[in-house]
Amino acid sequence: MIIVAVLVVFAAIVCAVLAMSWQADSPMVARMAAIRGERTVGSGYGSRQLTEPIGTRVFGPLAGSLGRKLATLLPTRWIQYLEKRLVQAGQPTTLTGFLVAVFLAEAGTLFIGFMLALSMGGLAGKGLIVLGASGVLGVFLPRTWLESRVRLRQKVILKSLPDAFDLVTVCAEAGLGLDAALARVAEKVKGPFGEELSVSLREISLGKLRRDALQELGERTGVPDLVQFVNAVIQAEAMGTSIATVLRIQAEQMRVKRRQRAEQLAQQAPVKMIFPLVLCIFPTLFIVILGPAGIRIYQTLVETR
Q1: CA 97 to mean position of chain CA atoms
Q2: What is the phi-psi region of residue 222: left when phi exceeds 0, alpha when psi lies from -120 to 50, beta otherwise?
Q3: Contacts by 35-38, CB closer than 8 A, 24 or more apart
Q4: CA distances (Å), 220 to each of 150, 168, 233, in order?
Q5: Residues 6 or more apart whose Cβ sits within 8 Å of residue 185
Q6: Which of 123, 200, 213, 275 has the fewest CB atoms lying closer than 10 Å?
Q7: Under 8 Å CB-to-CB from 243, ≥6 apart: which residues?
Q8: CATH classification of 157-259 is 1.20.81.30, yes or no?
Q9: 174-219: pLDDT as tens digits
Q10: pLDDT per residue over 87-128, tens digit each?
Q11: Does the global pTM surpass 0.85?
């Protein structure tokens, strides 16, 4: 009975928050939908696009309202940090979507912790510790997922940088300008780096300064080697030095760093192999080698008695 009451109170709070934070579509949104050829009916909730699935039309606005409400309640520094990490992760979801995921993960882990606490005798002693640990786990699970996405994307970008810089250097030495060389790299290189470079080139074509677009490229990726390359190119343009020379030096440094990273991983391999050897392989070897001898010794001792 207590569990049902808790669930009812939780659902009532969520509905109240969504009702207070929901806003109807503005006339501008309706006009833009009409220009795009989307069929809408009425206003407010009824103005949702009928071409979308019913789950998107029903739960999408609720999740967006909840995410915007959470964004207003959290500190500005946290929101800025989450926006930056989401961009570096390749924008797998929006800020409001991530906040809603954090809220649902926190609610789910708290509910599981509450159930475990009740099964352990109530909210006292170990039950209270379990409830607090579940709350902390609900906060860190989405953040751990986001950080893993950022690290994976940065790793992919880092692997593609040496070949990309070599191609930029060859194009620049062949007589192409820096923008044309970067455009050729964006065409040839597949993956996150090519996509981000295409975005920067599109911004440059729309009128943004090249140094600003390249700086934003480094911020969107968060890869130190790429940031160093961007700073070197911007400094070469400011000083009036040869871009081809700077690109050649940066490409050589990138190849050296790639070889150093490979040597570092090779030196770390024996240390990382110790744990599976000690925990998994050595015990099985001892059982296979010493098992028959132990059985024979046991049989001998029993017979002598």
Answers
A1: 13
A2: left
A3: none
A4: 11, 20, 17
A5: 164, 167, 168, 171, 194, 197
A6: 275
A7: 172, 178, 233, 236, 237
A8: yes
A9: 888 888 888 888 888 888 888 888 988 998 888 888 888 888 888 8
A10: 888 888 888 888 888 888 888 888 888 888 887 776 777 777
A11: no
